[in-house]
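Shipment paperwork, digital attachment
Item: protein structure file
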Amino acid sequence: MRIAILTIPGVQMLDVAGPMDVFSEATTQLKGRAGYSLEIVGLTMEPVTALNGTRFLPDMSIKDTLEGFDTLLIAGSPGIREYEDHRKLLQWIGRESRHVRRLASICTGAFLLGKAGLLDGRRATTHWNSTSRLANMFPSVRLEPNTIFVKDGPIYTSAGVTASMDLALALVEEDFGRSIALRVAKELILFLQRPGGQSQFSVHLEAQAAEIGPIRDITQWIVDNIAGDLSVETLAARLGMSSRNFARTFKRETHMTPGDYVEAARVEAARRILEESDTPLKRVASLCGFADQTGLRRAFMRRINVTPVEYRHRFRPSGATAVNAPPPRTLATA
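Attachment content:
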C-alpha cells in the first residue's frame, strides 16, 4: 500500500517522522504480508529543510503523479502561509486527490486542502492555534476546533504534531484491523487510540485567552467549585453583572458560552478522576457537578465521543485507587 507524504520547506519534522514510524512498524507487525511503502514528495527534488534543521531528500516532486498510490498525507508547517497561494502546488494537490483512495492533512496542512477546494462543506480540524484562521479563510468548512482528528468521507484532517501518530494509527486500524494497530501502539508506546474527538488541550488553557480580569477569575472559580451551582445566574451574581451581560462578555473573552465552558470543565475534571482512580461512575458524576451518571455519559459523548467507561478503559493505569474529591486544577494539555 503506497503512501505519499507531501513536505514543504520548514515542515514540522514530527508531522513526517511520526506517521512514517507508525506505518513502518505496522509493516513489521504484518510479518511478511504486504504492508506500506512510503515516499516523500517535495516541491522539487532539492533537499528539504525541516523546522528543526533536519535535511532530507524527497523521493519525488510535484512534477510526478500519484497514480498507483493509496494515500496522500499533507504535512504541516508554521510557515504554511508562504505556500497557500503556490499555484502549481495547489493544482497538484487537486489533481492528485483524484488518484488516491484517501487524503489526509496533518496540522496546518489543512490550509493547503482548503486552498485546493477540498474541504468545502466538510468537517475538519487543525492545530488549535490555527483554528480561528481556518474558520475565517474557509467559512464553508464545518470546523471541529478541539478534536484530535476528523474523518469526513475520504478526507481526514488532524491536529498538530503528535496527533499525526493518532491519525496514522487510525488508518492502520482501518486497513489491517485493531489487532495490528494494537501491536503497533504497544511497540511505539502509544495509546490505542486517543479517540478522534478527544480535546486537543485543556479547557483551562483555552480560557487563558480571556483578557478581562473578572472573566479570567470566574473561570478559575468554576474549576475550584466544579461540583457546585454554576448556572449563569450564579456566576453573573458573583461578578455583579446581569446574566445577559455576563454571558455576552464571557463568550467574547473565552470564545465559549458559560454553559459550554462549565460542561467542558466538568468533563475535564471527570477525565482526571477516571484516569487516576477506580471511583464509581455515580460518585464521579457527583464530584464533578453532573446531576447523575446519565448526564456524565451524555457530556462525555458530546465532548470526546466516548463513554466514561470506554475512556477509563483506554486511559486509566493499573493500580489506581478511589478518590473522594476532584483532582487539582491543571493547565496540562490533553
